[in-house]
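sry for the spam today, last one i promise. struct tokens for design, 238 residues
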């Protein structure tokens, strides 16, 4: 990969997404980019496409064989990154649809700003320690001893009768009203998001009328909030 690839590995996690939920962050990982585009015009085009959503702190691209077709776009705020992912997911870019997810880890420019920066070697040691602890017999949260059966999510009946309120399910842990608002307010007629106190993973999104709600459902049903979890949308029961 060379010196540039070494710098990239210090800025971002470049391995394939881990088989666990990746928490939202200010940095977006983009792949399926056209590999024939050179770095300079690619960075310029990415800036022009994504700067409409907020201040961009950094864009990283690389021409190394293992990193072609990939880029990282770091925003100043999580809200801007979430809005960009919602609007640009699968958007045609140099004749190929972009695949966008939150980066596996925040960029160094962000961690240095918020005071959580750790040298790469130290992070590697800590990651190995976590892996070793996990190998010692961690039990999946939903199957842990003593977990009541009622706490395990069960499939919900889908309502196909159109109305102005959408029901969102399969939301990842840590998903907030603000994050969903950023995602849905890009659609005409959006009114508000309502989370359900005491129940994680679900929310209600209200629109001005059923036509606008239907448009949002068709656009965002199945939207990947993380690389491993897709949001499910249906019409709320009346």
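last one done:
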């Amino acid at each position: 990969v060379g010196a540039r690839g070494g710098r990239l590995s210090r800025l971002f996690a470049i391995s394939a997404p881990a088989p666990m939920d990746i928490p939202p962050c200010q940095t977006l990982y983009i792949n399926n980019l056209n590999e024939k585009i050179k770095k300079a015009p690619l960075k310029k085009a990415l800036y022009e496409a994504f700067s409409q959503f907020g201040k961009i702190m950094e864009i990283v691209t690389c021409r190394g064989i293992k990193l072609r077709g990939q880029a990282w776009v770091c925003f100043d705020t999580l809200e801007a990154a979430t809005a960009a992912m919602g609007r640009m997911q699968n958007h045609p870019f140099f004749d190929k649809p972009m695949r966008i997810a939150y980066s596996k880890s925040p960029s160094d420019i962000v961690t240095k700003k918020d005071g959580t920066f750790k040298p790469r070697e130290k992070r590697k040691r800590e990651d190995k320690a976590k892996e070793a602890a996990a190998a010692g017999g961690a039990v999946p949260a939903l199957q842990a001893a003593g977990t009541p059966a009622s706490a395990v999510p069960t499939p919900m009946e889908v309502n196909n009768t159109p109305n102005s309120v959408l029901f969102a399910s399969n939301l990842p842990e840590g998903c907030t009203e603000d994050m969903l608002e950023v995602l849905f307010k890009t659609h005409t007629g959006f009114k508000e998001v309502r989370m359900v106190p005491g129940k994680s993973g679900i929310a209600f999104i209200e629109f001005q009328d059923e036509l606008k709600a239907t448009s949002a459902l068709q656009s965002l049903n199945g939207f990947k909030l993380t690389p491993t979890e897709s949001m499910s949308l249906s019409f709320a029961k009346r």
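The longest strand covers residues 199-207. ok im logging off now
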